[in-house]
Amino acid sequence: MKNLISGFLLLLLAVTAWQYFSFHKKSKTLTVVKKESGLQKITVLDIINPSLTANENAFIDEQALHRLINDKSDQSVTPTSCGNWWNFTENNKSSCIQLSYHPNRVGNTPGPISFDFEFDGIYKLKKICIFIDPVKSKKAGNTLLIKSGIPFKYNQNITQLLDDGSISGPGWVDVACDEQTQYLQLIYGENFGSIREIVFYGTLINKSPQASFSYGYNQKSFDSICGTNIIMQMGQSADGTNYDEGWNGGMRWFAAACYVLNKDLSLKDKNGTASELEANWNRRIIASGSKLHYAFGSLVDSSMVSPTNNSGGDWANQKPIPTSLINEKTADRFEGICTFNEIAEKPESYAQAAYNLKRLTYGLYQLGHRAIEPDNEKDGTFKKAGFMYPYQQAAYLSALYDGHDNTIQFKAEPVGVRNSGLSIDEMKLIFPGLTYVNPTYIKAMMWWWKWNRKNGDAPFDIFNIHLYPSTLNITQHYLNAQAVMPESGVFEMEKKLDTAKYFAALMHKPLMNTETGYDAYEEKLRFPNEFCTDKVRWGNSFMAIRPFAQKTPEAIQGEWLLRTMLLHNSKGIPCYQFWLADQYKEGTVCGPFSATGFLKHDTVINWKQLYIPRLAWYYIQCFKSHLKGYEFIKEKKENSLRFYFYENKKSTTANHAIVFWSATGDGSAARYLFKLPENKPYQILAPNKSTQGKITRGTNKEVVLTISELPQIIFY
After folding, report:
1. How confident is the model at residue 21 (pLDDT cuts 50, 70, 90)?
2. Per-domain residue ranges for the chain?
3. Which of the four CATH numbers 2.60.120.10, 3.40.50.620, 3.90.980.10, 2.60.40.1180 does domain 628-715 have?
4. How many Cα atoms are found within 13 Å in the side-chain-facing hemisphere of 643?
């Protein structure tokens, strides 16, 4: 979420998918099909919205209301009116499709605005009933075109409606048809009126089988899911302590193609790093047991830009497509930079990027890497011209994985990770972390892969998301936003994890989260400067902790990060905190992500920071040490109290552990009588400012626990 200032939390980051899709379930009773005028109301299984415009589910959220009388729509039935679709509240009840863009979305949309409808089987489609609020426009784009056929090959026009005054007023418009199909496409003109509801009628020919998937993940011990993020030289302290070592839960090294490739596309170092010095850092870190992988913030290399198409920096605000592939004079641009929307849905546009990635993959494998992440948060509009619509990112991944089913080449060579000569066990492709867990975006990518890849498979090996619990999705302005606890109903982290896990299961992929965290700023900067003045509060960060109950931001950061890791652990999902260490002296810097580190510093000795561990460092290290070998079994909730049950089947002493805490954000605590299976020895571990924590021992059948917002463990 680097440089996150604004973005379109489309459909409220999936408030959280429960509102937008339902899990496939087997019916327990015989379904009775109600027919009207001899026709069956058709069930819409899914709607694909590749342009991310409005809420596609509003097309079909009032199906039960519609009825036919004498084969015509009952005009007395009126669906809910539109309201403002871009009213970002958690309980937005708007119920129609309105083509007004969110003000912060990327303005340039590739191609026409369209929606694909998938029915639950093949039907003889006989009637389409649409409730329209016309605008009676004389401008171009005042049409609604409905087509049938095969997705991405719709070849049969069913009807075209014109909103030029011929639709007199709000009401149902009935379209008679006689088409055998399972799929429809609506091409929606930007000057066509609002659609409150659309209902389809016909006769069923063949019911489609339900999708099957595996929703279970192998549980992992706590120490094996805790990861972090670094850049070159981060984590090696001036006192000789190497904090970047021993991260068996995962470590993500941020880089960019411009740092590791020359303009002629040759590698700067044979191992895919920026230099032999960096390669040696990799070797040391991996030898220590850290599970390291590279994440490229951008795959744009220096040969892809031009003097008139250059966003600067590491070019994260551009798509990894050579400028030479388009006509710059007529190119679609956003803030002066080419969007490549003309060709960004074509896998061959990414042939050069896929060629580069293949060679980087092989080089990094020689260092001991076993996974690679090719890009970062391409679904975030803060990427500007680098933002990718779902079909664009789908095509991009298809090229990077195996050269789009081995149909594209570069320099007469096959491209993509799978053409590096390495097996999946030897090198996995991690999906570029999604900024938002947005079902609309994910479903559109899956739709593209289903119809454009030979086997319809998702072209990567591990699905990946990013989660920063905050109020940003409510306030829509980073200066007014703040961090919230991981269990917060405002952000809904647990539901987002379940949503991502659901889609990962549909794609038959494991899931990880390579970015999460909280800024632990003081309210005022101790050392203001021209960039971060004395007017800055809480670092001007959307993810800054606002302290409560006489706690410090660092104490709350420690509690929340530990609880974040525990939530991920309960679902078997690896989680990477962002960053391992702050990059600047404490109290001198502002902005998101600059006070998230496990480590901070105020002194530099011989070009190295002298790191000071925050409480979060001690808390995580303590739990990693004491829960090593323990796997999550089950969860128990009692109001705000959480109990996570763990088991260590290899332990010869205490092999049961329960982690407990109060999921509150007000400093509250509770006394709880816990009953052991029998009168036996127990240990209670409370984290503190040490890597071992404080241990209290006893023997009894009942234990009175003091449960606070800081997780503790009872072993027995």
Report:
1. very low
2. 33-207, 628-715
3. 2.60.40.1180
4. 15
